[in-house]
Protein backbone atom coordinates (compact mmCIF):
# COMPACT_ATOMS: atom_id res chain seq x y z
CA UNK A 1 0.00 0.00 0.00
CA UNK A 2 2.74 2.46 0.99
CA UNK A 3 4.71 1.71 -2.20
CA UNK A 4 1.60 2.41 -4.30
CA UNK A 5 1.07 5.73 -2.55
CA UNK A 6 4.65 6.77 -3.32
CA UNK A 7 4.20 5.79 -6.97
CA UNK A 8 0.94 7.76 -7.17
CA UNK A 9 2.58 10.83 -5.67
CA UNK A 10 5.40 10.65 -8.20
CA UNK A 11 2.86 10.39 -11.02
CA UNK A 12 1.11 13.50 -9.74
CA UNK A 13 4.42 15.38 -9.62
CA UNK A 14 5.05 14.39 -13.24
CA UNK A 15 1.53 15.41 -14.27
CA UNK A 16 2.10 18.87 -12.84
CA UNK A 17 5.35 19.22 -14.78
CA UNK A 18 7.36 19.42 -11.56
CA UNK A 19 9.33 16.16 -11.75
CA UNK A 20 13.04 16.55 -11.01
CA UNK A 21 16.00 14.36 -11.90
CA UNK A 22 19.63 14.54 -10.87
CA UNK A 23 22.07 15.53 -13.60
CA UNK A 24 25.53 14.00 -13.74
CA UNK A 25 28.42 16.46 -13.59
CA UNK A 26 31.89 15.07 -14.32
CA UNK A 27 35.09 16.87 -13.37
CA UNK A 28 35.46 20.32 -11.83
CA UNK A 29 32.83 22.97 -11.15
CA UNK A 30 34.27 25.47 -13.61
CA UNK A 31 33.05 27.96 -16.22
CA UNK A 32 32.35 24.93 -18.40
CA UNK A 33 31.34 21.49 -17.16
CA UNK A 34 30.65 18.04 -18.52
CA UNK A 35 26.91 17.56 -17.94
CA UNK A 36 25.48 14.13 -18.70
CA UNK A 37 28.42 13.63 -21.06
CA UNK A 38 28.01 16.98 -22.86
CA UNK A 39 30.47 19.86 -22.53
CA UNK A 40 28.42 22.98 -21.75
CA UNK A 41 28.85 26.55 -20.56
CA UNK A 42 27.98 26.56 -16.85
CA UNK A 43 25.50 29.29 -15.87
CA UNK A 44 24.01 27.33 -12.95
CA UNK A 45 26.71 27.29 -10.30
CA UNK A 46 27.01 29.19 -7.03
CA UNK A 47 30.79 29.07 -7.43
CA UNK A 48 30.50 32.81 -8.07
CA UNK A 49 34.17 33.75 -7.77
CA UNK A 50 35.62 30.53 -9.17
CA UNK A 51 37.26 29.71 -5.83
CA UNK A 52 36.29 26.03 -5.96
CA UNK A 53 39.09 25.74 -8.53
CA UNK A 54 41.62 28.14 -6.97
CA UNK A 55 45.14 26.70 -6.63
CA UNK A 56 45.63 28.19 -3.14
CA UNK A 57 42.50 26.43 -1.88
CA UNK A 58 43.61 23.15 -3.44
CA UNK A 59 46.97 23.55 -1.70
CA UNK A 60 45.32 24.34 1.65
CA UNK A 61 43.19 21.20 1.35
CA UNK A 62 46.18 18.99 0.62
CA UNK A 63 48.19 20.46 3.49
CA UNK A 64 45.30 19.95 5.90
CA UNK A 65 44.98 16.29 4.98
CA UNK A 66 48.71 15.77 5.45
CA UNK A 67 48.70 17.50 8.84
CA UNK A 68 45.31 16.67 10.35
CA UNK A 69 44.21 13.60 8.33
CA UNK A 70 40.59 13.30 7.21
CA UNK A 71 37.83 13.25 9.84
CA UNK A 72 37.24 15.40 12.91
CA UNK A 73 36.15 12.35 14.90
CA UNK A 74 33.24 13.75 16.90
CA UNK A 75 31.00 16.70 17.61
CA UNK A 76 32.78 19.81 18.80
CA UNK A 77 31.51 19.38 22.36
CA UNK A 78 33.08 15.92 22.52
CA UNK A 79 36.50 15.84 20.85
CA UNK A 80 35.91 17.44 17.46
CA UNK A 81 36.82 21.03 18.34
CA UNK A 82 40.09 21.40 16.45
CA UNK A 83 42.61 24.20 16.02
CA UNK A 84 41.39 24.97 12.51
CA UNK A 85 37.78 25.45 13.67
CA UNK A 86 38.87 28.19 16.06
CA UNK A 87 41.13 29.81 13.47
CA UNK A 88 38.31 29.91 10.93
CA UNK A 89 35.88 31.44 13.42
CA UNK A 90 38.33 34.22 14.19
CA UNK A 91 38.68 34.93 10.46
CA UNK A 92 34.90 34.99 9.97
CA UNK A 93 34.36 37.35 12.92
CA UNK A 94 36.90 39.79 11.49
CA UNK A 95 35.39 39.57 8.01
CA UNK A 96 31.88 40.21 9.35
CA UNK A 97 32.85 42.93 11.84
CA UNK A 98 31.50 40.83 14.72
CA UNK A 99 32.79 39.84 18.16
CA UNK A 100 32.62 36.13 17.45
CA UNK A 101 31.48 33.45 15.03
CA UNK A 102 30.45 29.80 15.09
CA UNK A 103 30.80 27.34 12.23
CA UNK A 104 27.96 25.00 11.21
CA UNK A 105 27.90 21.99 8.91
CA UNK A 106 25.51 23.55 6.37
CA UNK A 107 23.45 26.66 5.78
CA UNK A 108 20.28 24.68 6.39
CA UNK A 109 21.54 23.49 9.77
CA UNK A 110 22.62 27.00 10.69
CA UNK A 111 19.26 28.64 9.95
CA UNK A 112 17.14 25.89 11.47
CA UNK A 113 19.29 25.70 14.59
CA UNK A 114 19.71 29.44 15.02
CA UNK A 115 16.04 30.31 14.79
CA UNK A 116 14.86 27.45 17.01
CA UNK A 117 17.45 28.48 19.63
CA UNK A 118 16.81 32.22 19.68
CA UNK A 119 13.02 32.31 19.91
CA UNK A 120 10.16 30.13 21.09
CA UNK A 121 6.55 30.19 22.20
CA UNK A 122 5.37 33.71 22.97
CA UNK A 123 7.98 35.28 20.66
CA UNK A 124 7.47 36.66 17.16
CA UNK A 125 9.47 36.21 13.95
CA UNK A 126 8.95 38.64 11.06
CA UNK A 127 10.03 36.80 7.91
CA UNK A 128 10.16 37.93 4.28
CA UNK A 129 7.81 35.93 2.06
CA UNK A 130 10.65 34.87 -0.24
CA UNK A 131 13.07 33.72 2.44
CA UNK A 132 14.90 30.43 1.92
CA UNK A 133 13.29 27.10 2.86
CA UNK A 134 15.75 26.71 5.74
CA UNK A 135 14.45 29.94 7.29
CA UNK A 136 10.86 28.79 6.81
CA UNK A 137 11.60 25.48 8.52
CA UNK A 138 13.51 27.26 11.28
CA UNK A 139 10.47 29.44 11.95
CA UNK A 140 8.26 26.37 12.19
CA UNK A 141 10.59 24.51 14.53
CA UNK A 142 11.01 27.51 16.81
CA UNK A 143 7.29 27.45 17.75
CA UNK A 144 7.33 31.23 17.75
CA UNK A 145 4.56 33.11 15.97
CA UNK A 146 5.72 33.70 12.40
CA UNK A 147 4.39 36.80 10.65
CA UNK A 148 5.22 36.61 6.94
CA UNK A 149 5.40 40.02 5.30
CA UNK A 150 5.17 40.47 1.50
CA UNK A 151 8.54 40.53 -0.21
CA UNK A 152 10.55 43.58 0.91
CA UNK A 153 7.33 45.36 1.99
CA UNK A 154 8.52 47.81 4.65
CA UNK A 155 5.05 49.25 5.26
CA UNK A 156 3.65 45.83 6.09
CA UNK A 157 6.67 45.00 8.23
CA UNK A 158 6.24 48.18 10.24
CA UNK A 159 2.53 47.54 10.61
CA UNK A 160 3.20 44.03 11.94
CA UNK A 161 5.85 45.33 14.33
CA UNK A 162 3.41 47.86 15.78
CA UNK A 163 0.80 45.18 16.42
CA UNK A 164 3.01 42.92 18.53
CA UNK A 165 3.19 43.07 22.29
CA UNK A 166 6.13 44.99 23.71
CA UNK A 167 7.19 42.17 26.03
CA UNK A 168 7.70 39.65 23.19
CA UNK A 169 11.07 38.86 21.67
CA UNK A 170 10.90 40.24 18.14
CA UNK A 171 13.21 38.89 15.44
CA UNK A 172 13.24 40.16 11.85
CA UNK A 173 14.71 37.66 9.40
CA UNK A 174 15.66 38.34 5.79
CA UNK A 175 18.05 37.22 3.14
CA UNK A 176 20.26 40.06 1.93
CA UNK A 177 20.58 38.77 -1.63
CA UNK A 178 17.55 36.62 -2.42
CA UNK A 179 18.59 33.28 -3.85
CA UNK A 180 15.99 32.94 -6.60
CA UNK A 181 15.27 36.58 -7.45
CA UNK A 182 18.69 38.17 -7.08
CA UNK A 183 17.30 41.37 -5.59
CA UNK A 184 18.73 42.98 -2.47
CA UNK A 185 16.76 43.50 0.74
CA UNK A 186 16.42 47.05 2.11
CA UNK A 187 18.60 46.10 5.07
CA UNK A 188 19.28 49.67 6.22
CA UNK A 189 15.57 50.47 6.42
CA UNK A 190 14.84 47.14 8.12
CA UNK A 191 17.51 47.90 10.73
CA UNK A 192 15.98 51.32 11.34
CA UNK A 193 12.53 49.76 11.85
CA UNK A 194 14.00 47.22 14.23
CA UNK A 195 15.62 49.93 16.31
CA UNK A 196 12.35 51.88 16.58
CA UNK A 197 10.29 48.84 17.57
CA UNK A 198 12.65 46.94 19.85
CA UNK A 199 13.40 44.13 17.42
CA UNK A 200 16.60 42.33 16.46
CA UNK A 201 17.67 41.78 12.85
CA UNK A 202 19.01 38.47 11.54
CA UNK A 203 20.29 38.32 7.96
CA UNK A 204 21.15 35.42 5.68
CA UNK A 205 24.20 36.44 3.65
CA UNK A 206 24.56 33.13 1.80
CA UNK A 207 24.58 34.75 -1.65
CA UNK A 208 26.31 37.97 -0.60
CA UNK A 209 29.34 36.69 1.32
CA UNK A 210 32.41 37.05 -0.87
CA UNK A 211 30.51 39.01 -3.51
CA UNK A 212 29.66 42.33 -1.84
CA UNK A 213 31.63 44.66 0.41
CA UNK A 214 35.19 46.02 0.16
CA UNK A 215 36.57 42.80 1.69
CA UNK A 216 33.84 40.43 0.54
CA UNK A 217 32.03 40.60 3.87
CA UNK A 218 28.60 40.88 2.24
CA UNK A 219 25.77 43.39 2.12
CA UNK A 220 26.12 44.25 5.81
CA UNK A 221 29.72 45.30 5.17
CA UNK A 222 28.75 47.05 1.93
CA UNK A 223 26.16 49.15 3.78
CA UNK A 224 28.26 49.65 6.92
CA UNK A 225 25.63 48.06 9.16
CA UNK A 226 27.67 45.69 11.32
CA UNK A 227 26.70 47.64 14.45
CA UNK A 228 22.98 47.48 13.64
CA UNK A 229 22.59 43.94 12.32
CA UNK A 230 23.33 41.78 15.34
CA UNK A 231 23.04 38.33 13.76
CA UNK A 232 24.68 37.43 10.45
CA UNK A 233 24.51 34.01 8.90
CA UNK A 234 26.17 32.85 5.70
CA UNK A 235 27.75 29.94 3.89
CA UNK A 236 31.27 28.69 3.23
CA UNK A 237 30.14 27.22 -0.07
CA UNK A 238 28.88 29.35 -2.92
CA UNK A 239 31.32 32.26 -3.37
CA UNK A 240 33.83 30.79 -0.90
CA UNK A 241 34.01 27.65 -3.00
CA UNK A 242 33.78 25.02 -0.24
CA UNK A 243 31.17 23.77 2.18
CA UNK A 244 29.61 24.62 5.55
CA UNK A 245 28.16 27.74 7.13
CA UNK A 246 28.64 30.26 9.92
CA UNK A 247 26.80 32.51 12.35
CA UNK A 248 28.49 35.77 13.38
CA UNK A 249 27.46 38.03 16.23
CA UNK A 250 28.24 38.64 19.88
CA UNK A 251 30.28 36.35 22.12
CA UNK A 252 27.13 35.69 24.15
CA UNK A 253 25.31 34.59 20.99
CA UNK A 254 28.11 32.15 20.21
CA UNK A 255 28.04 30.76 23.77
CA UNK A 256 24.27 30.35 23.69
CA UNK A 257 24.42 28.42 20.42
CA UNK A 258 27.16 26.15 21.77
CA UNK A 259 24.95 25.35 24.76
CA UNK A 260 21.47 25.22 23.23
CA UNK A 261 21.59 24.80 19.43
CA UNK A 262 20.67 21.22 18.59
CA UNK A 263 21.93 21.32 14.98
CA UNK A 264 25.36 22.34 16.31
CA UNK A 265 25.53 20.11 19.38
CA UNK A 266 24.36 16.83 17.89
CA UNK A 267 26.51 16.50 14.78
CA UNK A 268 30.07 15.55 13.92
CA UNK A 269 32.06 18.68 13.18
CA UNK A 270 33.28 19.59 9.71
CA UNK A 271 36.51 17.83 8.72
CA UNK A 272 39.81 19.73 8.80
CA UNK A 273 40.15 19.81 5.02
CA UNK A 274 36.87 21.73 4.64
CA UNK A 275 37.83 24.21 7.36
CA UNK A 276 41.27 24.79 5.83
CA UNK A 277 39.66 25.53 2.48
CA UNK A 278 37.40 28.16 4.05
CA UNK A 279 40.32 29.87 5.82
CA UNK A 280 42.17 30.08 2.50
CA UNK A 281 39.06 31.35 0.72
CA UNK A 282 38.55 34.23 3.16
CA UNK A 283 42.17 35.24 2.64
CA UNK A 284 41.67 35.19 -1.14
CA UNK A 285 38.49 37.26 -1.20
CA UNK A 286 40.28 39.98 0.75
CA UNK A 287 43.39 39.91 -1.45
CA UNK A 288 41.72 39.47 -4.85
CA UNK A 289 38.93 42.07 -5.19
CA UNK A 290 39.34 41.80 -8.96
CA UNK A 291 37.25 38.63 -8.78
CA UNK A 292 34.28 40.63 -7.52
CA UNK A 293 34.81 43.17 -10.28
CA UNK A 294 34.94 40.43 -12.92
CA UNK A 295 31.73 38.89 -11.56
CA UNK A 296 29.98 42.29 -11.70
CA UNK A 297 31.19 42.86 -15.27
CA UNK A 298 29.97 39.45 -16.45
CA UNK A 299 26.63 39.96 -14.70
CA UNK A 300 26.23 43.34 -16.37
CA UNK A 301 27.05 41.90 -19.79
CA UNK A 302 24.45 39.15 -19.46
CA UNK A 303 21.83 41.43 -17.89
CA UNK A 304 22.05 44.09 -20.58
CA UNK A 305 22.18 41.55 -23.41
CA UNK A 306 19.16 39.60 -22.17
CA UNK A 307 17.13 42.72 -21.54
CA UNK A 308 17.86 43.93 -25.08
CA UNK A 309 16.29 40.67 -26.29
CA UNK A 310 13.15 41.46 -24.32
CA UNK A 311 13.65 39.02 -21.46
CA UNK A 312 12.49 40.08 -17.99
CA UNK A 313 15.00 39.70 -15.17
CA UNK A 314 12.78 40.99 -12.38
CA UNK A 315 14.42 43.33 -9.88
CA UNK A 316 17.78 41.61 -9.72
CA UNK A 317 20.62 43.77 -8.44
CA UNK A 318 23.19 41.01 -8.05
CA UNK A 319 24.95 38.18 -9.88
CA UNK A 320 21.73 36.11 -9.79
CA UNK A 321 19.67 36.80 -12.92
CA UNK A 322 16.16 35.28 -12.90
CA UNK A 323 14.89 35.04 -16.47
CA UNK A 324 11.17 35.02 -15.81
CA UNK A 325 9.10 32.55 -17.83
CA UNK A 326 6.02 31.86 -15.69
CA UNK A 327 4.80 28.54 -17.03
CA UNK A 328 6.73 25.52 -15.75
CA UNK A 329 6.57 23.58 -19.01
CA UNK A 330 7.80 26.54 -21.08
CA UNK A 331 10.57 27.10 -18.60
CA UNK A 332 11.91 23.58 -18.99
CA UNK A 333 11.56 23.70 -22.78
CA UNK A 334 13.72 26.82 -22.83
CA UNK A 335 16.28 25.17 -20.55
CA UNK A 336 16.49 22.16 -22.86
CA UNK A 337 16.82 24.36 -25.96
CA UNK A 338 19.73 26.15 -24.32
CA UNK A 339 21.37 22.83 -23.50
CA UNK A 340 21.14 21.87 -27.15
CA UNK A 341 23.06 25.09 -27.85
CA UNK A 342 25.71 24.26 -25.27
CA UNK A 343 24.50 26.40 -22.33
CA UNK A 344 23.34 25.07 -18.96
CA UNK A 345 20.90 27.42 -17.20
CA UNK A 346 18.77 25.50 -14.70
CA UNK A 347 15.01 25.85 -14.78
CA UNK A 348 13.50 26.66 -11.38
CA UNK A 349 9.90 25.62 -10.68
CA UNK A 350 7.55 25.40 -7.70
CA UNK A 351 7.97 24.74 -4.83
CA UNK A 352 11.35 26.47 -5.09
CA UNK A 353 9.50 29.54 -6.38
CA UNK A 354 5.83 30.58 -6.14
CA UNK A 355 3.39 29.05 -8.67
CA UNK A 356 3.32 30.90 -11.97
CA UNK A 357 6.83 32.33 -11.54
CA UNK A 358 9.03 29.59 -13.01
CA UNK A 359 12.28 30.98 -14.30
CA UNK A 360 15.78 30.19 -15.43
CA UNK A 361 18.24 31.02 -12.67
CA UNK A 362 21.19 32.38 -14.64
CA UNK A 363 24.46 32.89 -12.78
CA UNK A 364 27.76 33.90 -14.40
CA UNK A 365 31.08 33.36 -12.67
CA UNK A 366 34.05 35.67 -12.27
CA UNK A 367 36.10 33.21 -14.31
CA UNK A 368 33.89 33.27 -17.40
CA UNK A 369 35.51 35.04 -20.33
CA UNK A 370 33.96 37.79 -22.43
CA UNK A 371 33.78 35.32 -25.31
CA UNK A 372 31.83 32.88 -23.17
CA UNK A 373 29.35 35.59 -22.20
CA UNK A 374 28.82 36.38 -25.87
CA UNK A 375 28.40 32.66 -26.58
CA UNK A 376 25.71 32.51 -23.91
CA UNK A 377 23.83 35.48 -25.34
CA UNK A 378 23.85 33.92 -28.82
CA UNK A 379 22.41 30.73 -27.35
CA UNK A 380 19.59 32.64 -25.63
CA UNK A 381 18.83 34.54 -28.84
CA UNK A 382 18.67 31.32 -30.87
CA UNK A 383 16.53 29.57 -28.25
CA UNK A 384 14.03 32.40 -28.23
CA UNK A 385 13.81 33.14 -31.94
CA UNK A 386 14.22 29.68 -33.49
CA UNK A 387 11.74 27.90 -31.29
CA UNK A 388 9.01 30.53 -30.92
CA UNK A 389 8.54 30.25 -27.19
CA UNK A 390 6.66 33.54 -27.01
CA UNK A 391 8.57 34.88 -24.03
Walk me through the structure.
Helix 2 runs antiparallel to helix 11 and helix 12 runs parallel beside helix 14. Helices cover 43% and strands 16% of the residues. The protein has a seven-stranded mixed sheet with strand order 4-10-9-8-7-5-6, with helices on both faces. It has a four-stranded mixed sheet with strand order 1-2-3-12. The longest helix is centred in the C-terminal third of the chain and has 19 residues. It has 391 residues and is an alpha/beta fold. The mean pLDDT is 95. The protein has two domains: 129 residues, Aspartate Aminotransferase, domain 1 (Alpha-Beta Complex), CATH 3.90.1150; 233 residues, Aspartate Aminotransferase, domain 2 (3-Layer(aba) Sandwich).
List strands and helices in order, with pairings:
Layout: H1 2-15, E1 25-26, E2 32-35, E3 38-42, H2 55-68, H3 83-96, E4 100-104, H4 107-118, E5 124-128, H5 133-142, E6 145-149, H6 154-163, E7 170-175, H7 187-197, E8 200-204, H8 219-223, E9 231-235, E10 245-249, H9 251-260, H10 262-265, H11 272-287, H12 290-308, E11 321-326, H13 328-340, E12 343-344, E13 347-348, E14 358-362, H14 370-387
Parallel strand pairs: 3-12, 5-6, 5-7, 7-8, 8-9
Antiparallel strand pairs: 1-2, 2-3, 4-10, 9-10, 11-14, 13-14
Helix pairs in contact: 2-11, 3-11, 4-5, 6-7, 12-14
